[in-house]
Design a protein that fits this description.
Uracil-DNA glycosylase, 3 strands, alpha+beta, single chain, globular
Length: about 60
């Protein structure tokens, strides 16, 4: 089994920054806010890597 890589939430379409200073990071897919990266919270609570990661659409440049 290969080493699993840490999921970069900042590249996920479900990730967002909240206005809550105690819980500044959020996940729209799972519907929660956290002080840590959401993928780490999912890994910690479920024991499995986040399965909702969807890459943000790429920006097209002329």
């Amino acid at each position: 089994m290969s080493e699993s890589r840490r999921i970069d939430c900042t590249k996920c379409r479900h990730y967002y920054i909240t206005w809550d200073p105690n819980f500044p990071r959020g996940c729209r897919s799972f519907g929660f806010k956290t002080s840590a990266m959401p993928s780490l919270a999912v890994q910690s609570s479920s024991g499995k890597p986040c399965m909702s990661f969807e890459a943000k659409p790429g920006k097209t440049r002329p």
